[in-house]
Amino acid sequence: FWIWRSTVAAIEQGMARWAAEREAAGWVVSYDTPLPGGWPFAASVRFPALLIASGPGTPFDVTWSAGRAEARIVPPEFGEVVVDLPDPQILVVGGVDLRFAAERLVLRLPVEGGAPPLGGRLEAAHLRLAAPELLPEQVLEAALFTAAVQTRPDATEAEAALTLTLRAVGVTLPRPGLLGQRVEEAAAALSASGPVPGRRSLRDRLEVWRDAGGSVALSGVRLRYGPVTAEGEATLALDATLQPMGAGRLVLTGLDPALAALAEAGFVVSRVPGYGRKRHMTVGHLPGSEAQSR
What are the DSSP calls for the chain, one per residue? Predict the structure, then answer.
């Protein structure tokens, strides 16, 4: 019982400490009275009516709310907190309302010696996403969705300050597209290098990050949609006007059936020799680089 009680207290204190740090940075974090549970096989704490929102001093306009979040630690795995999100979630970004739910939605966070976690992994099974204001009565579904993030606030110019990996499998689009309604797989990894500026406006942050040599590398980009498979990678940065610039490589296969589908739909398609096979393209431009196609 003592181990259970001390673990429950550690979860509550960790959440309170993280909320205080977010509030000090200008965010709003609120939840109702925590409810301990899980005895005797696990230590868990339920946080009802969880709300996380950007405040006046933050450069983003984001609000996330959940009916409840339940954080648990299951011995002997004391190095990881598993957060179950069983209720429908609401995410508002820039005034756009996104609603999502899943049969299983879990957030895995490392326990790092009492310090707030610098990364985590989100896992969703049978995810359903809707944007009622943008697409009324239409839902995007994914059989499997994973997102992993890792941050390093003290990163130097040559180090990754943020690493993000996304993957969706078995995606059903709200309505059929030219190549069908199902995307078999979509994946990408993003790595942002350069120092992370402190609390200031978004434009100031971008300018400081650009001037310090910040860049974004995209790797493992993969899309399997109908007969088409696309794989690629790219490196991006910001120019003097904060516009993106960069270079990348894209490999496309299965274009013959895709072009046939476009022609059948009434589009004018120019047949290019070799397009039914694999096609390599290098696009974009960075200072001192040459754009190529082969």
Answer: -HHHHHHHHHHHHHHHHHHHHHHHTT-EEE----EEE-TTT-EEEEEEEEEEE--TTSS--EEEEEEEEEEEE-TT-TTEEEEE--S-EEEEETTEEEEEEEEEEEEEEE-BTTBPPSEEEEEEEEEEEE-TTTSTT-EEEEEEEEEEEEE-TT--TTSEEEEEEEEEEEEEEEEEETTEEEEEEEEEEEEEES----SS-HHHHHHHHHHTT-EEEEEEEEEEETTEEEEEEEEEEE-TTS-EEEEEEEEEE-HHHHHHHHHHTT------TTTTS-EEEEEEE-TT----B-
